[in-house]
Amino acid sequence: MRKTIYYFLFIGILFSCTKKSDKLENIINIKKTTPVSIFDLSKSVDVIKLETNNDCLIESISDVVFYNNRFYILDIRQQGLFCFDATGKFIYKIFRKGQGPEEYIYIGSFNIDPFNKQLLILEPFGNLLTFDLNGNFISKTRLPKEIAAYNEVFPLNNDTLLFISINRYSIVTYDKKRKTIINKLFDDENKNNLLSPINKTYSYNDQVFFSPPISNDIINVKNDSVFTWNFGHENNTQGQVKKVKEEIKNAGNVYDDYVQKQLINYYIIFNYETERYKICMLRYGKEEYKCRYIFYDKKIKKPFIFEQTDEGIQFLIPFYNEKSVVLTDHVTGQIRNYKIYDDKILTDQQREIIKQHNTETDNPLLFKYNFKE
Q1: CB count in 10 Å sphere of residue 311
Q2: Are 36 and 309 in contact (CB under 8 A)?
Q3: Which helix (DSSP H) or strand (DSSP E) does residue 319 occupy?
Q4: Which own/partner contact pairs does 126-133 have at CB distance under 8 Å and 24+ positions apart?
Q5: Average pLDDT, stretch 36-54?
Q6: Domains defined along the chain, listed by start
Q7: What's the rounded mean pLDDT across residues 93-99?
Q8: Which residues neighbour 179 within 8 Å (Cβ) at sequence distance 6 or greater?
Q9: Sheet holding 127-132, edge to edge
Q10: What is the pLDDT of residue 329?
Q11: What's residue 97's pLDDT?
Q12: The model scores a pTM over 0.85
């Protein structure tokens, strides 16, 4: 009940009032998967061989942002950020671990600020470092101590940032000029993996969208709209959601698969949006860790529902942007049996790149699938 109250408090504070609710008219039947080729979704694939030399050796990939024809790659294990151009040529890296005025103790996450053309590096302990897009240091800001953890950052406009936190308040909005917190929202002390706000927020078309845990809603935090996935009879009932929240509260921080237990029909792992698709990855089915993808084609108003493409490609660890998705098998917490490409869809030249690639000594390959327009 408390969560419901804060949901409406969030809407009221952020929008004053909600004027528009965008619910799919056509019910999406998540029970039924359909054959989907990777080329039903994308028009082409690029295989990018990242340059390898002593200045840019990547140990593992934690995050990738593709912006203005550059790849920005976070390696949490090494605590560094690498920048490559669209062809994989190394441009620069940021390695500033330390406690100095231009250094960070630990990179938790990063993002691009498209409004100010800057690179934001976030320490979970409450420091925000700003660089220009060529890697030059600009500033280091100590964030208000009233928030115990700052885990993700999303620019809302020139002067406002939105932070995601795993602690008491999931959403924090911050005024950069005044260096003060504007709002603290979604008060919940009983978070676990299922209720975690991490990976529930994304940017698209200069807008920021947040998905409340165990909800079909996607809230546009910059205007008065809420998009809702409609799964018909498969929609989780209020009773199911209440029961799961009670189970989570009793279990503390112990993770459990409530879908496999059939306490709820599904839960949405993450949402995203590109120019062509609204994308949803959800946990569904009795099998352990079974995932299902929904690519809703906004142009033809048709959903593609699948667990893997006809070629066997999965999007378990995707790095999306507005026009494409980047996949790599060289990620932090690598998942076994995770197929990211198929030889049949590649050109002879691309197959040769893979053949010549040394997984032990070379930087990882990136597979960039360019979505249909």
Answers
A1: 15
A2: yes
A3: strand 319-320
A4: 126/150, 128/153, 128/161, 129/96, 129/102, 129/104, 131/94, 133/67, 133/68, 133/70
A5: 97
A6: 2-371 (2.120.10.30)
A7: 95
A8: 141, 144
A9: 109-113, 118-123, 127-132, 137-142
A10: 80
A11: 94
A12: yes
7 DSSP assignment: H
Q: Strand, coil or helix: what is 241? A: helix
Burial of 90 (0-12, 13-18, 19+ CB in 10 A): middle
Instruction: For residue range 305-319, list pLDDT tens digits in order.
Output: 999 999 999 998 899
Name the maximum alpha-carbon separation found in the chain: 58
Quick check: 17 pLDDT over 70? no
Which residue type, as a one-letter code, is found at position 111? N
58-71: pLDDT as tens digits: 999 999 999 999 99
Report the pLDDT value the prediction gives residue 20, as an integer from 0 to 100: 60
Is 247 within 8 Å of 256 (Cβ atoms)? Answer: yes
Q: Measured between alpha carbons, how far is 171 from 154 in angstroms, rounded to an integer? A: 11
